[in-house]
Design goal:
Strands 1-2-4-3-5-6-7-8 form an eight-stranded mixed beta sheet, sandwiched between helices. The mean pLDDT is 96. Helix 4 links the parallel strand 5 and strand 6. By secondary structure, it is of the alpha/beta class.
Length: 271
């Protein structure tokens, strides 16, 4: 399948929390956040945040997901958000902006503004869940017309997500996002299951029980919070499989998650 994409700057002339001195991956100049559009044929869209411990962005959890969603007609926006040395709230600012960007250009891409989901794996899952629970907060001052759009997702898709910043934390994600010696209040803020409410978007979640990098308890905590708040969710825990599987093509039993996601999206009348 031939895939045509368009990559644009995520922000205009003003980028909140921008620092000209920050570089990453040996670049000689700072990398500005971008958003890459995979235009589908349906009226729904998924904003994708690849994982990478808030230190990088993994292509197999970004472009690969977008191409899979495109195969069933779904438009995707893959976000090249800021990572370390940036810390919160720069990453969340980029995520919030990306949802607003998708809504602002909904007519251009044939999208229903009420059918925009967020999706992320590992640390990207943490970012997707962050938007899903912190959408009502003023993360940054408005920079242009795009920022007048609502940033609350209509659905959340979490693949082996980082959720907790305490007992079940992923050390690298926590250190890169809020610092190794973060205040308890920052850990509380970024332990996302603690902020689920009845208004939190419905979620599709999957994880593997033997994940040694991001413990499965992260997904269980988020699902438990959704259950307590009476928010609909679907949870799949596969017995075997290492962290970071993505589409899991090498593990057919785990790879079922993509078909299950498609069925869930139909069930909630997203597609």
């Amino acid at each position: 399948m031939k895939v045509n994409t368009v990559t644009e700057n995520l922000w205009g002339s003003v980028i909140p929390y921008w620092n000209d001195s920050y570089i990453e991956d040996g670049e000689t100049a700072p990398r500005k956040p971008t958003i890459t559009v995979y235009k589908g044929t349906s009226d729904c869209a998924v904003v994708i945040f690849p994982g990478g411990g808030y230190a990088m962005r993994a292509e197999h959890e970004g472009a690969a997901y977008a191409e899979r969603l495109l195969s069933i007609g779904i438009t995707s926006f893959v976000v090249d958000y800021r990572v370390a040395p940036y810390k919160h709230p720069a990453e969340l600012s980029d995520a919030v902006r990306a949802v607003r960007y998708a809504r602002y250009y909904a007519d251009k891409y044939g999208i229903d503004k009420n059918k925009i989901a967020v999706m992320g794996s590992s640390a990207g899952g943490h970012l997707a869940a962050s938007v899903s629970v912190h959408y009502g907060k003023d993360i940054y001052e408005k920079t242009d017309g795009i920022d007048n759009e609502d940033c609350k997702p209509n659905a959340t898709i979490l693949c082996y997500p980082v959720i907790d910043m305490f007992e079940y934390r992923h050390d690298g994600s926590r250190q890169n996002l809020i610092g190794e010696r973060a205040f308890k209040a920052d850990k509380e803020l970024m332990s996302l299951h603690r902020h689920v409410t009845r208004e939190t978007p419905p979620a599709f979640i999957w994880h593997t029980a033997e994940d040694c990098t991001v413990p499965v308890q992260n997904s269980l905590l988020y699902a438990g919070a959704l259950s307590e708040a009476q928010v609909p969710f679907e949870l799949h825990i596969y017995p075997f499989g290492h962290h970071g599987l993505g589409l899991a093509k090498e593990m057919p039993h785990v790879a079922q998650w993509a078909n299950s996601l498609e069925n869930w999206l139909k069930l909630i009348k997203f597609i």
